[in-house]
Design goal:
Elements (H helix, E strand, L loop, with lengths): L1 E5 L3 H13 L3 E5 L2 H10 L4 E4 L8 H10 L6 E5 L4 H10 L3 E4 L4 H15 L6 E4 L2 E4 L4 E4 L2 E2 L4 H12 L7 H8 L8 H15 L4 E6 L3 E6 L1
Parallel strand pairs: 1-2, 1-3, 3-4, 4-5
Antiparallel strand pairs: 6-7, 7-8, 8-9, 10-11
InterPro entries: CheY-like_superfamily, OmpR/PhoB-type_DNA-bd, Sig_transdc_resp-reg_receiver, WalR-like, WH-like_DNA-bd_sf
Organism: Microvirgula aerodenitrificans
Keywords: DNA-binding, Phosphoprotein, Transcription, Transcription regulation, Two-component regulatory system
Length: 221
Amino acid sequence: MRILLVEDHLPLAESLTRALSQAGFSVDCMHNGADADHVLHTQDYALVILDLALPRLDGWEVLRRLRARRNRVPVMILTAHGAVGDRVRGLDLGADDYLPKPFELAELEARARALIRRSHGQESNVHHCGPLSYDSAGRQFTLAGERLQLTPREHAVLEVLILRDGKAVSKDTLSEKIFGLDESSSADAIEIYIHRLRKKLGHAPVAIVTLRGLGYLLEAK
């Protein structure tokens, strides 16, 4: 899943980007509100982690503009402003969660997973497609009860497919959701990951189906 981190404190931004990447997320990081507002006009994210005290455009305004465009991407406010009034203002502007600094990385990651899960209308941590199961809390796939060994990119592609709950996903959407702004992507790369996933799923009664003109669909046979 691809997320946007907006944090102007460079050491913290680098630390969070590294930790979130190790947790399996593809992370774009912006260091000011104007750049964040720009990419939110053009890019699709599963989650935005937003600081408030930002240069050029503060987090309040980034959030206000985002919701004014009717963009419902989940937003977690991450800030040293811990007063009740600030939390209320953020929630009233459309934030979905509020985590004051300092915080534990494990809590940040858990809240991020919960927000993404709820945005897909799924309250359970575990998602199923035939014998394939995905535990979004533990970020682990199992096939017929056995852990499925995947590379980070394979994991990201299969995660998008299983969370779409029986809906087709285009190559462009897969690229947008798994590749960051500073990473090159192509239709050929997506096809390679799909091919590898099909081999790992083997003869199990679950398959990635190609729908001409629509993309890929994960379905139980």
